[in-house]
Amino acid sequence: MKYKNGKPVEHGDIVHVKNRAYTVYSISDTVTLRSMCERGHIKSVFPADIGAYIPRINPVFTQLLEGLIK
Q: What are phi and psi of 65, to 5 degrees?
């Protein structure tokens, strides 16, 4: 998973959702966030909610790109 600026999403990154600060707790198809307040709420969000995406390329394009790189 990557942010829109190209950097990878890593555990412990600080992100903001609806003006609240969270840290990235776990990463899968959704992102689990832990609140930075004293209560430590846990929240699951979609990657787009934190400005990220899952890079998925069609397998045909992957084969074409591998052929061009070699």
A: -65, -40
pLDDT tens, position by position, 7-49: 999 999 999 999 999 999 999 889 999 999 888 899 999 999 9
CB 9 within 8 A of CB 27: yes
Terminal-residue alpha carbon distance, the chain: 25
d(CA 6, CA 45): 19
pTM for this predicted structure: 0.72
Asked if 45 and 33 count as a contact pair (C-beta separation under 8 A), the reply is: yes
